[in-house]
Design a protein that fits this description.
single chain; 294 residues; alpha/beta; Rossmann fold; 23% strand
Length: 294
C-alpha cells in the first residue's frame, strides 16, 4: 500500500504513534474503530508498520563496502562511551568524505544502518551512532527502542551525538570536511550539531526535523539543505520561525518541500515511503555533500 492510498487521518495517527504521543496498543485500537469510506482503517494502519528485511537496499555483505561497529569515548554523554556503525567504501584507501547519519527516536534500527551502507556505496565514510548504545543498544524493535530512547536524558543523548560527530571528524579515514544528516529526531539533532560545532561542520541535511533556537542558529556555519515533506503539519508550522533565525544569522540554506509526501517519506520500510520523491531527495543530498565536502 502506498502513501497516496492511505487516508490522511491514518497518517496523522501514525505520526502520533511514531513520536510517542500514543503507544502501539492505542495506535492499533484507534485504527480499528476508525473508518475510511465505511471500511476499517486497520489495514492502512498495519501497512505503515516497518518491514526492515524487505526494505534493505544494500546488504552488509555487499562487496562495495566494509562495515563494523566501533566504540569511542563520549564525555558528558549518557555513560561516557558510545558505539556506532562505521561503513567505508572498499574502493580506495581514503581519505573519504565523512557523513554522520543520525537515527530517528528509536535508536539505530536496520533502516538507518542501511542508509549508512548506501552512503558508503556512494563513496562516503559513514558513521551511524546508536544513541541507545549506553543502555544496551537498539533492542530489536521500534516500540521498545522508542520507549528506551524517551527514558534517556535528552541533553546527554545529544552530547553523545555531538561526540560522535567529533569522533568521525577526527577519524583517520575521514577527509577534512564533515557532513551530518538525520531523520525526524535525527533531523533536529542535525541542526543541533551544526549549531554546537560551528565551523567543524561544513554541510548539514536535516530531514523533516525541528529547528534550533535563534540563539543556537547564530552559531551555524554549515551550508544547510533542509528536506521537508509537504504533508507534515507539526514540522512545517515551525519552519517560518526557524527560517527567520537562519536568515538573521546569515546561514547559507536551501529548503525543498517534496510534493505529496508525508513525514518519514524517505524511510522505505513503511508505506509512508515515496519512492520517486525519496530518490530525488537522496540524489540532491549526495550532490550537496559532494559539493560542500570537497
Amino acid at each position: 500500500m502506498t502513501t497516496e492510498k492511505i487516508d490522511p487521518k491514518v497518517l496523522n495517527l501514525y505520526d502520533e504513534y511514531c513520536h510517542g504521543f500514543i503507544d502501539r496498543r492505542e495506535f492499533m485500537n484507534r485504527a480499528t474503530v476508525m473508518t475510511v469510506g465505511g471500511v476499517s482503517a486497520l489495514a492502512m494502519a498495519t501497512s505503515l508498520l516497518p518491514r526492515y528485511a524487505e526494505a534493505q537496499t544494500i546488504s552488509f555483505t555487499d562487496e562495495r563496502i566494509k562495515a563494523n561497529y566501533v566504540t569511542y569515548p563520549s564525555p558528558g554523554g549518557t555513560s561516557g562511551e558510545m558505539r556506532g556503525y562505521l561503513v567505508q567504501p572498499t574502493s580506495g584507501s581514503g581519505p573519504f568524505k565523512p557523513v554522520l547519519v543520525i537515527h530517528e527516536n528509536r535508536g539505530l534500527n536496520p533502516h538507518i544502518e542501511d542508509v549508512a551502507r548506501r552512503f558508503a556505496a556512494a563513496g562516503f565514510l559513514a558513521l551511524a551512532p546508536d544513541g541507545l548504545a549506553p543502555v544496551g543498544g537498539y533492542p530489536g524493535n521500534d516500540d521498545d527502542g522508542r520507549s528506551l530512547q524517551s527514558s534517556l536524558d535528552r541533553n546527554a543523548l545529544l552530547q553523545d551525538l555531538v561526540n560522535s560527530a567529533e569522533y568521525l571528524d577526527s577519524h583517520e579515514l575521514a577527509s577534512d570536511k564533515l557532513g551530518v544528516t538525520g531523520f525526524c529526531f535525527g533531523g533536529y539533532a542535525t541542526n543541533y550539531i551544526a549549531a554546537q560545532l560551528g565551523d567543524k561542520v561544513q554541510a548539514a541535511v536535516p530531514f523533516y526535523g525541528s529547528g534550533v533556537s535563534a540563539e543556537e542558529a547564530a552559531n551555524i556555519k554549515a551550508a544547510l539543505l533542509v528536506q521537508s515533506a509537504e504533508n507534515d503539519q507539526r514540522i512545517n508550522a515551525a519552519w517560518p520561525e526557524y527560517e527567520a533565525a537562519l536568515q538573521a544569522a546569515g546561514v547559507n540554506y536551501e529548503r525543498h518541500v517534496y510534493p505529496g509526501t508525508a513525514h518519514g517519506f524517505h524511510n522505505n520500510s513503511t508505506a509512508r515511503f515515496d519512492e520517486a520523491q525519496s530518490e530525488i531527495a537522496w540524489d540532491r543530498m549526495v550532490a550537496f555533500f559532494n559539493e560542500h565536502l570537497d
